[in-house]
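Tokens in:
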């Protein structure tokens, strides 16, 4: 039975606009992010969706609620495993400072990428089991989505290769194994 999950990256936050590492810091959407979520909903409105999930973080929930309102889809089911990677003491730093302080090495207190991939795959499996044969929207985060795209595409896209835009959509399909149908699609925010 084919199940489709569209992984949607949340809209922009003030920290995204300032290129700061957010990770598990719970930052809300800004006005641009809300407009991006509405634009994504307009794009997603062209197809049928059966269920709506989101990470437990406010920026993902708010994006999902905006999409759900436009698509008359809800309620939003939250899943802790869809949360962004915890970046430890690098949260709040810009990328240049992160590399200046830690280089390519580990960041103190940061969640290991293997753990991010593991819990992301657990989230996909839980969504698939709960919604067999359906089309599901799941609002999550750039790091987590890229980690999943990397696993599913065997490294062709994903972490280190793909910069996911805010409110981008990424469709994966289960037909016995996961496949990436498309990734990083966006609509222009109104």
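Residues out:
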């Amino acid at each position: 039975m084919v199940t489709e999950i569209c992984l949607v990256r949340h809209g922009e936050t003030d920290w995204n606009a300032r290129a700061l590492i957010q990770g598990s810091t719970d930052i809300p959407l800004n006005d641009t992010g809300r407009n991006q979520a509405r634009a994504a909903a307009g794009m997603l409105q062209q197809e049928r969706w059966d269920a709506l999930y989101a990470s437990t973080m406010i920026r993902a929930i708010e994006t999902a609620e905006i999409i759900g309102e436009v698509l008359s889809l809800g309620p939003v089911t939250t899943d802790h495993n869809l949360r962004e990677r915890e970046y430890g003491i690098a949260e709040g730093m810009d990328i240049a400072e992160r590399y200046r302080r830690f280089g390519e090495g580990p960041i103190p207190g940061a969640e290991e990428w293997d753990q991010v991939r593991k819990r992301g795959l657990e989230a996909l499996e839980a969504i698939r089991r709960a919604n067999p044969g359906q089309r599901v929207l799941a609002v999550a985060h750039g790091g987590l989505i890229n980690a999943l795209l990397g696993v599913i595409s065997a490294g062709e896209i994903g972490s280190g290769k793909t910069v996911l835009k805010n409110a981008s959509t990424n469709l994966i399909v289960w037909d016995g194994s996961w496949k990436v149908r498309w990734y990083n699609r966006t609509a222009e925010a109104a």
